[in-house]
Structures are given as C-alpha cells and as structure tokens.
Specification:
The complex is a heterodimer of chains A (about 260) and B (about 70).
Chain A lengths: L7 E3 L2 E3 L3 E3 L7 H11 L3 E8 L20 E4 L7 H13 L5 E4 L12 H13 L3 E6 L3 H9 L6 E2 L13 H10 L5 E3 L5 H9 L4 E4 L1 H4 L4 H21 L21
Parallel strand pairs in A: 3-4, 3-10, 4-5, 6-7, 7-8, 9-10
Antiparallel strand pairs in A: 1-2
Helix pairs in contact in A: 1-8, 2-3, 4-5, 6-8
Chain B lengths: L3 E6 L2 E6 L4 H7 L8 E4 L2 E3 L14 E9 L2
Parallel strand pairs in B: 1-5
Antiparallel strand pairs in B: 1-2, 3-4, 3-5
The chains are: A alpha/beta (about 260), B mainly beta (about 70).
Chain lengths: ~260, ~70
Amino acid sequence: MDALDKPLVIAGKTFASRLIVGTGKYPSHQVMQACHQAAGTSMVTVAVRRLDLKATGEASLLSWIDKEKIAVLPNTAACYTADDAIRTARLGAELGLSTWVKLEVLGDEKTLFPDVEETLKAARVLVKEGFTVLPYTSDDVITARKLEDVGCAAVMPLAAPIGSGLGIRNPHALRLILETVKVPVIVDAGVGTASDAAIAMELGCHALLMNTAIAQAKEPVRMARAMRLAVEAGREAYLAGRIPMKAYASASSPLSGLIGA
Amino acid sequence: MGAVLEIHLNGEARQVTVGTTVAQLLAQLGLAGKPVAVEVNEQVVKQAQHGAHALAQGDRVEVVTFVGGG
C-alpha cells in the first residue's frame, strides 16, 4: 500500500491489504495458496463444518494458509437462524485461531440475501460475548447503522447476490452507508471482475471481500492479481479525487497560440 | 467392553463405552491433537474440558473443523 494512504484498521488491528479473500471453490489447495499470494491478502475467510469422519489423511485447509501473514476469519456461512450462527461462531472461536467472526445469517436459498433481523439478533449476542463481529448485510443504510450501534466492528454490505458476479448494482446505497457509519464498510459478495472491485473502492469503500470471482475464474491466480491491482487502483483514485462529470468537451490543449491559416 | 451407550456423532448413531470422555472419543476417531472443536447438545465443550466431560446416553455430539469458504 502507498505510503500516503492510511492502512485499513478494523477493531484496532491494522491490515496491509484491503482485499479479503475466501478459501472456497478453488480447483485445489495449491491454487488457493497461489491466489492468496497473488492477491496480497492479509485476511482470509474460512467455514466451520462437520468433520468428515470417514476421510483419512487429507491435509488440513489450515496448512495451506500462511498464518504468519494472513489472519483467519471464521464465518457462519449457510446459517439461517441467529441461534445456528451463534453456535457456529462459538465453534469457530473454539478452533483457536480467532475471536473474530464473519457473521452471515441468510434468509433465502435462492438469493442468499441476509436475514437482517436474525443477523442483528446474533450480532448483539456475539458482541456481548466478546467477538469482533463483521456482519454480511444488505445494502440498506438503516440496517448498517443498527449493526454499528450494536457494536459490530465493520459492516459488509453485498454489492449483488453471493457468487453472482453481477457487480456493483447499487452504488447509491453503498454511498449512503459510507456517509452514515463510522466503522469500515467492506463490500462482501457480488463482485465479478476487476472493474467491479475498482468501482467499489472508488466509492470510498474501505475493503472488499471476495471468493467466487477469483476461485472460479478461468485463471484464478491471474484474477487474484487483477483484483489486487483493481483494489489498489480504485483506492488511489478515490484518494486522488476524480474530476466532475460534464456534459460537454473541455479541451486539454491551450486554445491560444494556434498557428495562422 | 463394558456397558455401552448410544450417542449421535455428526448426525450418525454411534455406540461408546459408558464413561467415555470427549477426549477418549476423539482419540478413538484418530483426532487427538487435531484442529477440531466439539459441541455436545449444542454447547461447546472447551478443549481443557475434553478429558473431564463424560458422554451420556443420547448426547448429540458435533465434531467440526475449518473448511474452505467465503
């Protein structure tokens, strides 16, 4: 990150990278590890699941994560009630790597949209228990504000449905959230390609979380690099301050001193 | 083998000897020292308690770990 930029800080912890990456849906653990390196990420998400008691000898996912450089963020993916999310978060913490949680409470299998009521309920309990809670949420500013009010360390609005690759569908909603909450705003879900990441960062979002856009690209490692560059470019453009849009042309070369006819 | 009791381990019925602790169950599964977390009847059993927590008839035991996710 450029020396002129302030690093991303969440709950008092500094992150060198503004790109948070998932660990699911890669062709292999090797490719995942290479993607994490290419993305330059400082934090990756992981899911908590029943151990497959019949599987033997498979190397743990964790052995493919450089835990010296990369923080591990357990999620509560695929939970549909506050109670299930709370149980999952507690199990994630018991695994001993983090008391942070990406809180995800879904409302519907088709859209994977968050159930914000259950998310708020779970956030209240987990914050009280001492978790650092990063909730996946809708792009609704009122919900974002409520999540901040109950003590969440960031808010993570979707840009489009999880895994859809539809990009930044409602920049105005994200802008409202950015204007309203003081905690970091992390776009979580919906990014499809590098320009989407750049747009989110140009809006002033503090970070991005993505998985499918990298893991399912034809060349995941190349896309991971593209996303790193896009996040950095978007952030720099945001800090630089873009020119206003105008309806008509404005010449770049001087109008005086033209040669005679 | 002494008297047995039945538990539900990750959703499947399993018989264990009366008095089996969480630590002994993990050892039987080849998971001693592995990065797993355990829940019994929807309550986390912390690692420090694994040796003391004896399983009871009908216990619902979940053994979980980290997997890839977003």
